[in-house]
Design a protein that fits this description.
Number of domains: 2
Strand content: 15-25%
CATH class of the largest domain: Alpha Beta
Low-confidence stretches: 23-40
Order of helices and strands: HEHEHEHEHEHEHEHEEHHEH
Largest sheet: 10 strands, mixed
Number of strands: 10
CATH architecture of the largest domain: 3-Layer(aba) Sandwich
Radius of gyration: 30 Å
CATH topology of the largest domain: D-Maltodextrin-Binding Protein, domain 2
Structural class: alpha/beta
Distance between the termini: 107 Å
Shape: globular
Length: 341
């Protein structure tokens, strides 16, 4: 029997099937690509960031945040907007950060008070310093110096200590408030020198400095950025710097070790944090841009000119630093019986 050749209808059916299969393959591939695109997170950041500053505008913390926010905004491709939330020894701002969504759009400054002092001084806080934050990196540290009124009779630290020991409790020393870095630095000094100095707490560093310049108090541990202009104008006199080496801005002033108090060091410091649980890529991006901003020649020079030492750190380095500071200062606070409940 002769074999029947495929007719036109058969060939048309076969071609239709091939076209249908090709269309199906194209559509299937497009579906897979669309699904993959949806699975990929959007590049960060997609909107402006908020930088919470837990102190009032105009102070050292605010200056650092705004300097770095501008630089980081340029490299992130989104604005970084400073948002001041002052009050309660940084607790208000810190609590706001801790309770924000961990999406990388709310970050903020946490300082030595926020992370190292408050946990040792308060039985209850609005945040847990060890659990509620993602530690992004260091910002800067502010050297502390021991200053006196120009008329104060002591010309160096040893004369200062002699006067203190001659009349225990008679020599006064101001601070920005109970539990502030300036107060804790004083307590460390008292413990290491075994002296009795009268602590006078003010509501902020500005009124304390005003009274020091007026001679209402004898002495004060002050951070360099807040006091540099007064030092240069001769309105207060520095006996020693609480740093391992002499400061470039005060080259003629001895360190505490040179002045006869070995091992005494005290800084106020700040870092950048976000809420706990920041995604690793977001944390790494923020740290990268922060380190770049701190390393930028113009920004670094500007900070150093006003007495701030840039403190770039990787997240783990900053976490280790905070842990060491918590351990160190909690002992000082406990020994001084500082409680702010």
């Amino acid at each position: 029997m002769a074999t029947r050749k495929p007719g036109p209808d058969f060939r048309r059916d076969t071609m239709t099937q091939r076209i249908a299969l090709r269309l199906f393959a194209v559509l299937f591939a497009a579906t897979l690509l669309a699904g993959a695109a949806q699975a990929q997170p959007a590049a960060y950041p997609q909107q402006p960031l908020k930088w919470v500053v837990p102190y009032a505008p105009g102070g050292t913390t605010d200056v650092i945040a705004r300097q770095l926010a501008v630089r980081m905004g340029q490299t992130l491709g989104q604005s970084v907007i400073a948002d001041n939330k002052p009050g309660a020894a940084s607790i208000i701002g810190a609590t706001f950060i801790a309770r924000s969504a961990p999406d990388g759009y709310t970050v903020g400054t946490a300082d030595s008070g926020t992370l190292a002092f408050n946990p040792a001084m308060y039985a209850s806080l609005g945040y847990d310093a060890g659990k509620d934050f993602s530690l992004i990196g260091g910002l800067g540290r502010m050297p502390l110096v021991l200053a006196v009124h120009p008329s104060f009779p002591a010309k160096d630290v040893q004369e200062f200590l002699a006067l203190v020991r001659k009349s225990p409790g008679a020599v006064s020393s101001a601070s920005a408030g109970s539990g502030s870095p300036l107060h804790v630095a004083l307590e460390l000094f008292k413990q290491q020198t075994r002296t009795d100095i009268l602590h006078v707490a003010y509501k902020g560093a500005a009124p304390a400095l005003q009274d020091l310049m007026a001679g209402q108090v004898n002495s004060m541990f002050v951070d360099l950025p807040a006091s540099l202009s007064m030092i240069k104008a001769g309105k207060i006199r520095v006996l020693a710097v609480a740093t391992p080496q002499r400061l470039a801005l005060l080259p003629d002033v001895p360190t505490m070790a040179e002045a006869g108090v070995p091992g005494y060091q005290a800084y106020a410091w700040q870092g950048l944090v976000g809420p706990a649980g920041l995604p690793t890529p977001v944390l790494e991006r923020l740290n990268k841009e922060l380190v770049a901003a701190l390393s930028h020649a113009q920004t670094r020079s500007r900070l150093q000119e006003i007495g701030i030492e840039p403190m770039p750190m990787a997240p783990q380095q900053f976490a280790d630093f905070v842990h060491d500071e918590q351990k160190r200062w909690s002992g000082v606070i406990k020994a001084a019986s500082i409680r702010l409940d």
